[in-house]
Amino acid sequence: MTPVIAGMMYLDNQLGDHWEVKEEDGKKILSKTSKENIDQIIATRRNRMFITKTPSVSLASLADVKEMLGKGDIVKAYHKGNVIMAEITDRLKNGFKVKTEAGKEMAIAKEQVLDLMKQQYEDMKDESAKLVKYFQEAYGDKSYAQQLVKMK
Fold this sequence. Notes:
A hairpin with a 4-residue loop joins strand 8 and strand 9. Helix 3 packs across helix 4. The chain folds into three domains: 50 residues, no CATH class; 49 residues, SH3 type barrels, CATH 2.30.30.140; 32 residues. The protein is 34% helix and 37% strand. A five-stranded antiparallel β-sheet has the order 9-8-7-6-10, with no helix packed on it. Strands 1-4-5 form a three-stranded antiparallel β-sheet, with no helix packed on it.
């Protein structure tokens, strides 16, 4: 195919784009030809994204979350070379007492907790009442405060 439009100008900048006429399904179309390696451009961009991206999880945030874990929460934890799922039955000084899926009870350090799988909200009613009271005082409208708490 021969180039149809070459050396276009846009705002006094030489673009260097080349267009050609192609035939697809019996219709003539105008197609831009590109000598750039799109796969290489995408790979370079992805690498740059991962290099410049800062981690969203820090050791401080993990420590904060582990302080909020409580009775009834389901966690994924590392124990004797295996990853286990366990329910927290009690808080200890430096960790948790947990019950595994197999029914085995054990104590684990909070550093062994890898992920929170499900959080139990036993005190949710008390927390909701406190939030409604706070928002009612802040905004002066009880129904609006209840709506805000429901959205949470």
